[in-house]
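cron nightly-structures :: item 1 of 1
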Amino acid sequence: MKITKEQLKKIIKEEISLLQETRSMEEIVDDMEKSFGDAHRDLQTFVLSLKQSGMDFQNAEAQVKALEDIILNLQQSLQTAG
């Protein structure tokens, strides 16, 4: 199969684009920590709203605790690996 110059240029551009989209492990971990932190704050706010409204908040509170455990485990794993 023969590849034209134009096809080759397109393939090279696509490969360069893919390389630029690749994030480092550090960037991935930073994004994960931020996402977990944001989710944790949102759940805490949600639980507080449920408490203030008089609704049952036990399930949401358990989810906050589970998320706190996940964040703690992730941070400990990162410290061990780093």
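cron nightly-structures :: done
The mean pLDDT is 79.
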